[in-house]
Amino acid sequence: MRLRDKVAIVTGAGSGIGAAAAVAMAAEGARVLVADINEAGAKATVQRIEGARGQAIALTADVTRAADNQALVERATAAWGRLDVFFANAGVPQWKTDVEEVDEKTFDTIFDVNVKGVYLGAKYALPVMKRAGRGVFLITASTAAIRPRPGGQIYAASKGAVVTLAKALALEAAPHGVRVVAIAPVATHTPMLPTFMGKQQVDAEGLARYEQTVPLGRLNQPEDIAHAAVFLASDEAAMITGSVLEVDGGRCI
Ligand SMILES: NC(=O)c1ccc[n+]([C@@H]2O[C@H](COP(=O)([O-])OP(=O)(O)OC[C@H]3O[C@@H](n4cnc5c(N)ncnc54)[C@H](O)[C@@H]3O)[C@@H](O)[C@H]2O)c1
Questions:
Q1: How many domains are contained in the chain?
Q2: C-alpha 85 chain-centroid distance
């Protein structure tokens, strides 16, 4: 059990990558606060964890709200007495489109969730971790931060912002024994995938177009990122901070 006795909060854990990470962390012994704006999704993830004899609590939270981030940290520490991992994973995609077609509301929403949401998670989680002298703050960035595709410029910029935020926070947290790491997945089979492709649903053309750009020849399953998150959250990654781990089958080479 690589996360035995640890307590983790995972945002966006009602679906896709966050759900897989919450399940994987619980399987490695962590008690997991499953947070999502989608209450039903969060509850479904908790059911999966409990079905495998793990421990989890569902909490409905909007990561763009300071009070909700504060409540996440307070609930986890009240329930389990500590906080070891905060996985700032919640995010929203961008419909594939040229910049002249992007309205301000779309820009604001993407930056609110993908950037402000991460800042607010750090604002409330890092002080608890710093006081304890241990902890790991993980962020789901994207290969879009490193190697964007055409038509996703605002999303790519939001993920670039959190890569830089991870590095800056890592410096701030390091003297306190706290690590901060960004994970950069390539396109992943989750409900978000068709939006990136500019499709209502993934079809053979979109899939082939994306897979051709990945040297290993396939896209991620959510579990590919979950495994990386478990490793980074564990003490096996004790010397990894400020890094961006590409989980991308070689896409960023
Ligand atoms: N799927 C991909 O191809 C891909 C690739 C690279 C990075 N990512 C990133 O991975 C992360 C997870 O996405 P996913 O692919 O699992 O998609 P997903 O749609 O399956 O999951 C995203 C979850 O975030 C939740 N969420 C959205 N806004 C929220 C808010 N304001 N507060 C709380 N929760 C909120 C949604 O309800 C959903 O459950 C995101 O940050 C995304 O940008 C995804």
A1: 1
A2: 12
Domain that holds residue 34: 7-247
Q: How confident is the model at residue 167 (pLDDT cuts 50, 70, 90)?
A: very high
Query: pLDDT digit string (tens) for 187-202?
Result: 999 999 999 998 999 9
* CATH number where 150 lies: 3.40.50.720
Would you please indicate which residues are annotated as catalytic (active-site) residues? 155
* Sign of torsion over alpha carbons 221, 227, 230, 236: negative
Pocket of ligand 1 (CB under 6 A): 11-12, 14-18, 36-38, 41, 61-64, 89-92, 113, 117, 140, 142, 185, 187-188, 190-193, 196
Which of 37, 63, 108, 192 to mutate to test ligand 1, by most ligand atoms within 8 A of the CB atom?
192
Q: What is the pTM of this model?
A: 0.98
Q: Look at residue 1 and tell me if it is in a domain.
A: no
**Residue 191: its H or E element:** none
Name 65's Cβ contacts closer than 8 Å, sequence gap at least 6. Answer: 120
| Residue of 10, 68, 188 to test ligand 1 pocket, by largest number of atoms within 8 Å of CB | 188
